[in-house]
Design a protein that fits this description.
237 residues, alpha+beta
Amino acid sequence: MHVYTDPLKQEQLDWRIRVQIIGGIAQGLLYLHQYSRLRIVHRDLKASNILLDSDMNPKISDFGMARIFVGNQSRANTNRIVGTYGYMSPEYAMEGLFSIKSDVFAFGVLLLEILSGKKNTGFYGCDSPSLLGHAWKLWENNRALELMDPLVDVPSNSLIPLRYIQVGLLCVQENPADRPTMCDVVSMLNNEQTILASPQHPAFTVGRRTIVKSSPREGTDGIGSENGLTLSLIEAR
């Protein structure tokens, strides 16, 4: 789903379509984390793993790195870190720790990418190390709406775009405990009465490569199962 950074296709993505894509991805992750028979952490949520149908409805794809959480397990750790810089949460990239909050971080990156029309990986400009850093700098200076893709005709007198930016920043907080759950995110996006916390300095991610650290062993701080899913596609609901 790099359509939002393709100059030839960006104009097709008006505000309504971008909201639809963001909401669909959020609902899909909520299903994986909370409503699926098996609780699933995707671990590699990124733009290229979001498929769009002819009606621009998003579908989360590529579950090759997904992990199943069982019982009351809330997180796991691994010595084999696989993923894509720019979307990986700092605790996963640096310590191999992952949870549903790792997916929340990746969702926040995606949200900010869709709003801005820019990729987090390979972002240059404004003396910021990443799109996240750029978004934070604008937020701190009360200029957050400057993050929006200039091709988007943002509704006049609407606070919704600013709200979406705030949700994105909350999702990319450095501490996993400070990030909302996807249930919270869906509520924040759909209910303007939901009060949002003030985001703090987010985690900045830099780099443009997929990294793989190999180790003969992989462990969890709970009993996690290796991915045995045959799912290749889950439609956002």
